[in-house]
Amino acid sequence: GVGGLIDVGTDDGLIRVTEDGGRNWRSMDKFPGVPDMTYVSFLASSRHAPDTVFAAFDNHKNGDFKPYLLTSMDRGRNWTSIAGDLPERNTVYAVVQDHANPKLLFVGTEFGAFFTVDGGAHWIEFTGDVPTIAVRDLVIQERENDLVLGTFGRGFYILDDYTPLRLENHDLLERGPFLFPVKDALRYVEMSRLGGSSGKGSQGESFYAAPNPPFGAVFTYYLKDKIKTRKEQRHEAEKKAQKEGTPVKYPTIDELRAEDEEKEPQVILTVRDGTDHVVRRITGSRDKGVHRVAWDLRYPTSEPTVLEPPTDRPPWWRPPAGPLALPGTYTGTLTREVDGVIAQLADTREFNVVPLELATLAARDRAEALAFQKKVTHLQRAVRGAIEVAKETRTRIDYLRKAFLDTPAAAPSLLADLDGIERRLNDLLVRLRGNPTRKERQE
Q1: Where are the beta strands (DSSP E) in 339-440?
Q2: How much is the CA Rg of the chain, to the nearest whole Å?
Q3: What is the DSSP secondary structure assignment for residue 265, as one 8-state letter?
Q4: pTM score, two decimals?
């Protein structure tokens, strides 16, 4: 704590306090709502007020699974419950207070972890990738503002940079879409010792490696409601009508056709540089709640656009990436795309890209180096795009050859024309990507 207060919790339901380094102790046994002889599961002194302490109690061995969580603001003389609306059967094991916002508290319980932004009146459960498991301990890494959960039997979980929770309040949640402030992004070249993005390389699944935090600029945003398709809106209206006992409206054929032809709405984070030029567009979840997406600090790759990423890559393969963006100030804008129309959802956020200066042979002029990389990327994309067009044209030629056989009235000279086109196409492909005959024979 911050005031020299020392607390000791015991298994007989008592908390003993010393204010003189242990020479004299006094007991506290007046805890409203807590049964006698209840195990003291956790004690935490406030990081902000020298007279404030938090205590959690565990009475599950007596068949009592209520969440007992109390605080004292006068060094243990009087206690009040801050269990708020925690689930009724959810024993509290640990509590920790944010080092910046005294009203932001975290608790570990038998069935997961919760946080409150109002000192304990209302609690919100952590969901997402955290399983429903007993959280026995909590620690805050203050430099990075990370929350670490120690669980029973399922290892550790880390919530990276929980600073958006300091701004969260019920007014914000009711107001609607919101883009939280963006933390400075550290610029360096991310590499793995064993290769690949998982850190395992070719070691196989028996080699354990935990994922790193998202690299680059991380955007955290909140959606009050899911951005729904027409079909989802209709289903929701039908459920509401059934619940209220009112007639369910049957859609017309035109309405069903509009549902079938509708493209799924998108949430798009648009990144712009200091000159307001668009650097990248990143898609995110359109579901209700808090979400995160990351920009890898790079421009688009030179690879041709694909609808589905390849699935037959080795584990050490890294996806293609464009040139690194320059250090400086950037902005992120949260938008949605519905029926081809893009609309802004929240205020634009400004953030900085900060270099770590780790390059062995750093470019003397980063702007000139980036201009060269973008020029090369543009050329690569043009060449690869031309190769894809040539491959598509060869496929069309194959269809035309088959169509000639299926069309009795077709003139035989068409085959000679197709053969001449294909030879010219093959010559272009050799100039663009090399001679496949040499490659197959390792020449």
Answers
A1: 341-344, 349-355
A2: 31
A3: P
A4: 0.82
